[in-house]
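A reminder before we start the practical. When you read a complex entry, don't treat the lines as separate problems. The point of joint prediction is that each chain is placed relative to the others, so the output describes one connected object in space. Small molecules and nucleic acid strands, if listed, are placed in the same frame. In the example below there are two entries. Take a minute to note the order of the lines before looking further.
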Amino acid sequence: MLLFILRRLGVMVATMICLTFVVFYLVNLEPNLKKLALEQNNNRMTEEAVESWLLKEGYRRPILERYAEWIGSAAIGDFGHSTRFRKPVAEVLAPRIGYTGTLMFWVMVTMVPSALIIGVLAGMREGSKTDRSLSVVAIASTATPEYVSGILFTVLFASWLGVLKGVSKAGGIDFNNFALPVMTMAIYGMGYIARMTRASMAEVMTAQYIRTARLKGLSFRAQVLRHALRNALIAPFTVIMLQFPWLLTGVVIVEKLFNYKGFGWTLVEAADNNDIDLLLSCSLVSVVVVLLTQLISDIGYAYLNPRIRVN
Amino acid sequence: MEYIGFFEIWGTVISQFWPVWLSLAVILSVSYYFRHSLNLYGRLFDSSVGMIGLVIVLFWIMTAVFADWVSVFDPLEQLALLKRKGPGAIDAETGKALLFGADNLGRDLFSRMVHGSRFVLIIAPAATLFAFIVGITIGLPAGYYGGKIDAVMSFLANLVLAFPVILLFYLLVTPGIRETPIPMAMAGFFFIFPIIFFSVLFYSRYATRPGLLTIQLICVLLVGGWLYSGLVFNADPLRIITLEPNELNIFASVVFVNSPTVFRIVRGITMDIKTRDYVAAAQTRGENAWYIMLWEILPNARGPLIVDACLRIGYTTILLGTLGFFGLGLAPESPDWGSMINQTRAFIRIVPTIALPPTLALAIFVLGLNLLADGLREQSLKD
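Here is the predicted structure of the whole assembly.
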């Protein structure tokens, strides 16, 4: 087990190095550097002025040398300086990650239980009316991306009913301005988890030991709650963990849509302004989130299901 | 400003779609009549969910085909007097109504929505097809041989999958990157796969019949080379296939994002199927490895792959919408749904209905694809 985790951590570091290098290479392409120079100074700079500014700021040194420098300082916790916000990257990013963490937390709190309930209700009687209608609901929710449902909800709740706010302020959240972003994100992810739970539940309900429970004369409630549920919830665990990377894209869309200034909003700002250090740190954060959740889902799966061995 | 009423709006909308209704009726009745000889597609008519999905998808395909007849105005025409008018506003000059209202530049939302289906229905299925060919060509050997090839390929696929899609698009689909050779290199790399795929496909089966093989290979190289020159270098001698540089960039990036997932699916299915008896039989006959992969394993993997293709076209539609939503890569006047959403969403407070046509169109199309996939899955499991 320990060896497995160590090997996975090794692969993780290799992935991080490869990915940050790709990002580093792409943000240092000639057109992007020019964009950065124009954004940092004034937009009517001459070619020579751009060139001399890039030379002065050290952007003309060999790319490998600069990448090695970045890695070296990132390894000891110095993530560089944000050119967009004119502050150290750590100072920009730390509070924003906190805001997005709050958003993610509430999304998970609403999404996971409702998805599991829908999935279990649909899967416990496969092919019934409840199953069919809940499955269509789940399919409909996976078919509406955040930028569609977000706008539909804003029109419905903010413009017509006037009960919720269509803009949300990071750091000062309450139910009125936070319900829409959470709802938007939760609904898109919910359908997928619900369908996976349904499939897993339907499979468990056909298992031999459920038949035994039924022949023993147990009530349907007891069959579902005491026998089926525990095994049926193993597979959705992996799915829920693997939802995090997916939520990351959702976060960017939702934060942009509701102007919630969290991690996703920062990523868009960094990319729009070619803020090299900030963008590198953003990609580092997202890659770590993706890989860590994968690792946790693998280990957790083996822990929950003793028939599986990791190696 | 004069408006037409609610019922008149929908009456006109329904009558505007007449070529679509007509072709839908013809296609559905013909397929229903021949449903017993149409395999999986025919059996779709037994599942109500699948039927609804099929009708929705066909509706949008036909809308894209007949977009010029269905739309009322030119999607790019700006009617200065009608900026941000609500549904049903009548254009004084022509006397025709803007069925769903106008956007912030006074363009007819209905016509833009109808024309927007073209962009999606060309790029999304084509990109999915390319992603499948790339994923299959790499996934089959990775799953079949395992070992080192598998480890390297899986690492590369996971590398791409670990990237948040949105960051990748922000890096790859920018105007700046079009000045560099990267989009062309990417397109050149991905679009070579279909040529390799079909050459190996025919070679592995007909190597013993050189006459037939030569004809097939010449066909593959001619058609492939023609498409390749048109897609990658925008130098199609017949001028049929042309892609704007920004479209090429989007196309290649979407293929790039989708192919690792297809790779993973194909690899998984291959690892499962290669333990079957008919594969062992082929191995005992001494068949070539590529023959086994392409002619024994691949046809038997078609069920899950067809279902996934449906879902993936829907996912690609969502991706294209995301690109438009962030204003990445597409021309500002382009009538695709994502850009429309992006341009109109700022005015929701003034005209609540302004963003609805593109959002609902996109949601309905993706829903149709998902229902179709569900129906196909249900029917293919009945074997």
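Discuss with your neighbour: The two ends of chain A are 7 Å apart (CA to CA). What might explain this?
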